[in-house]
Amino acid sequence: MISSLLILVGLVSVLSEPASSCGEKEFRSKDGFCCPMCNQGLHVSRDCTEDLGTKCQPCPEGTFTNKPNGLKSCPSCSLCTGHGLFTRHNCTATSDTVCWVVDGYFCVTPEISGCSFAKKHSKCKSGQKTKEPGSSTADTVCEDCPPGSFSVDGLNCTRWTECSESERQERDGSSVSDVVCSSASRHHYTLCYSFVPFLSLIIAAVIKVCWNPVYNTNEL
């Protein structure tokens, strides 16, 4: 009997308590009332009371609300001041500023209504080629040059030059530089030219040795 009375008292106390939460389009005031929210583009200037409804006021310039709310002030509009960003759509009382990326940049933190942070496209290094150029939503994709080719500017890979039969390979190729070839005949001539001074000296010495005896005999 006592336990039944306790259960009954508990049920009555639960049913007599006010609702712990407000409706979907209501907010709880500081006095505990469930007040109707203000529409987008507006904010609360005075909470509701037992006799009066919520008083709403338009968002000042440079601020906005984009959904029903119980805010006492409107949040400030975003500014597209980061590197690589520009204003695609200006802020209104019911929507925030929409920012997007300029050419040569990509969005690092894309959002439903735009971008809040951008970075410059990466540049591929020497010894690499550009596999996929950067876009507004993705960075550049680089790839190493395959063996037997090289790249100086990081754009495309070029096959090493093959020296002809009349040339000799002066320097091997690498991922950043081409093979260096030189003319074998030119090398030969250059080598010969380098001996000319020595040959001249030898010839002069021989002439001197051979000429002096004849000169001395005539004097006698």
Instruction: Name the shape in a single word.
Output: rod-shaped
CATH superfamily of one domain: Tumor Necrosis Factor Receptor, subunit A, domain 2
Q: Look up the CATH topology of one domain.
A: Tumor Necrosis Factor Receptor, subunit A, domain 2
Largest sheet: 2 strands, antiparallel
Structural class: alpha+beta
Organism: Oryzias melastigma (Marine medaka)
Pfam family, one: TNFR_c6
Keywords: Disulfide bond, Signal
InterPro entries: TNFR/NGFR_Cys_rich_reg (IPR001368)
How does this structure look, described?
By secondary structure, this protein is of the alpha+beta class. Among the domains are: 26-76, Tumor Necrosis Factor Receptor, subunit A, domain 2 (Ribbon), CATH 2.10.50; 79-120, Tumor Necrosis Factor Receptor, subunit A, domain 2. The protein has helices at 2-16, 184-219; strands at 26-28, 34-36, 42-46, 55-58, 85-89, 98-101, 105-107, 110-111, 114-115, 118-120, 128-132, 141-144, 149-150, 158-159, 167-171, 180-183. The strands form 8 sheets. The chain has a two-stranded antiparallel sheet. Strands 3-4 form a two-stranded antiparallel sheet. Strands 5-6 form a two-stranded antiparallel ribbon. The longest helix is centred in the C-terminal third of the chain and has 36 residues, at 184-219. The chain is rod-shaped, with a radius of gyration of 45 Å. Mean pLDDT is 83; it is low at 1-19, 187-193 and 214-220. TNFR-Cys repeats lie at residues 58-99. Residues 58-99 form the TNFR-Cys domain. Disulfide bonds join 59-74. It comes from Oryzias melastigma.
